[in-house]
Amino acid sequence: MLQRSTGPWRISAVDAHAGGEPGRVVMGGHGILAVPGTTMLERKRHLEEHQDGFRTLMLKEPRGLPSSCLNLVLPPLDEAADAAFIIMEQSRYYPAMSGSNTMCVVTVLLETGWLPMREPMTELRLETPAGLIDVQATCDSGRVRSVTLRNVPSFATHLDEPLHVPGVGNIRVDVAYGGMFYVLVSASDLGVDLASAQGAELVRVGELVKQSARRNIAVAHPTFPEIDVIECTLIHGPPNAPANDGRNAVIVSTGDPEANDSAPQRASIDRSPCGTGTSARLAVLHARGELGVDADYRHEGILDTVFTGRIVDTAPVGPHTAIVPSISGQAWITGYADYVLADDDPFPEGFTVGDIWPG
Hints:
Order of helices and strands: EEEHHEEHEEEEEEHHEEEHEEEE
Number of strands: 18
Largest sheet: 18 strands, mixed
Radius of gyration: 19 Å
Structural class: alpha+beta
Number of helices: 6
Helix content: 10-25%
Distance between the termini: 25 Å
Strand content: 35-45%
């Protein structure tokens, strides 16, 4: 629950998108920056358990939309980091890492002057619940033209795993970690087209695959065992543009992340090519021997925007041979706002109505 106080809450934010995926960045506000914890995971957990009303205030109506994400910038705990941030989605979920949100945060921090911009290249280190992320931002004329982030080690845990999906049939899937756990499946196996006009069907079958994978495939990160849930489905297929290597739609749940029912939960498609999803895809391709170190992989999203992934190194993570991926893309600032919560507002933690919220 939010701690209500007399007088209005005023929360300063900058809205941005990376490859089409909205990523609101909160730059300050009354009572927001005091998030206790000795690690970023502890800070994330505190927000989840004690201050989740802030997420719903900013991401549900009347201030948010189903596909929106929120990034809370905090002072770093690690002295090697330039800034820290925690990612929140419209569902009651706090991803440990996100490529598109990192691009939004970097662009906002540099273009607003919160951190100094150095042209033609600014190097930053950001602290997230998934660890430290090294970033290179190509800058020109006060603008961030591209962001390349060195993501956390990513690895495949299951290849060609048989899975029965009620309402779909028997299919084979891969499971991989790219900052969160993904179940990956071919669009042709599902009989769907990776087109924005087919969004409703992509969401429907993608959620069915995820729920079945959660029930039948156990996952846990060897270093962070509390990361133990398959969060998203990545549906992949051939690219539309010949200059690209692949296409995908990542299905992001916007309902209860703990739900495990047979009926699909609310969900939406990541508007971007998805940074952590691209990392998981690279991990699977590398595990199959189809993508080597230092080879680029141009990954289309549902809007035909492109993130470029590259395997820059390999590293052991528990029993897994992980890749160290870099992801490159661009973000754009779309607006500056002071969001206000009056002390007599009847919706201090937002609301949802079933007409526009996918379900």
